[in-house]
Amino acid sequence: MTLRGFLAIGLVGLFIALAATPEAEGQRRRGRGGGGGGGSSGGGGQATSNNPMSHQASREVMERAGLFKTGLVPRYPKQARCLEVASFFGDRTRYDGSQRVAWANHGRHGGFDISAPEGTPLLAIADGEVVHKHSGGRLVGHQIFLRHGPADTGLRVWIYSKYKHFREPPELAIGQRVRLGQVIGHSGKTGTVGGHYGEWGYPHLHLSLYVSDSGRYKTKPMMVVPAKVRHLDPLALYLPAGRRLTDNHAIQALSEAEKVVAIPYQTPDGRRLPADTRLIWPFMCEPG
Ligand SMILES: [Zn+2]
Hints:
Blueprint: H1 3-31, H2 59-64, E1 73-75, E2 80-81, E3 85-87, E4 112-115, E5 121-123, E6 128-135, E7 142-148, H3 150-153, E8 158-166, E9 177-178, E10 183-186, E11 204-212, E12 217-219, E13 224-226, E14 230-232, H4 248-252, E15 260-262, E16 265-266, E17 272-273, E18 286-287
Parallel strand pairs: 1-15
Antiparallel strand pairs: 2-18, 3-4, 4-11, 5-10, 6-7, 6-9, 7-8, 8-11, 11-14, 12-13, 16-17
This protein binds zinc ion.
Zinc ion (ZN) is lined by residues 109, 111, 113, 206.
């Protein structure tokens, strides 16, 4: 073969690879059906779901259930250093500024991401109970669901917190109670290796919150689905007590000043600020 022929074939091959890969990958992922679980699709094709927690739910179902940017902004403590949010709830971009894939959640982030070195202790954001554990592949990794009842938080609703990408499966058992600030495992990068994050993955915590007026939920392989579930911007947990809304639509309607949220936290020696808080940041903050 001549050198020119060889180069031409190489270029054609490269073109085909560039043109075909994203589509093929999209097809493969869609083919998995449940994707974000939901369980109602059974896998295959252009499955949609009435479960707003499913990656495949329609835009309308998701927006009604509160999956959009609320505009809440964290105010981190001046007297301590906290790991900070790198990609907010509802964001269309990842921590590095790249665009999220459109096939999941219509490109919107279903929780927030905090970049964290592998092995950083993860804290229970409130008293609660372990209701689900799952170890999955891409975009999931080792994950856990906690359920926080009104008696745990002082809120009127039930909160479900989903933590993803644990370094190893959490040692907690289903049904086990957890206390505010308890170490529930260690952050990692499981489920992030491959795809956008490449072979090194992206060590971080992804935290999603879901709200329900009742403590009832269904158990699916990859998740729990609370009755009449809605999304909640995780920053909403830390709104001041007088304004502790749990409806993203109402939160979005707050004024800009009201959307600034002071972060309550725990230090490595177990102190909490404010001392009487029942909800805290999922990582310890270092004083000084
Ligand atoms: Zn995330």
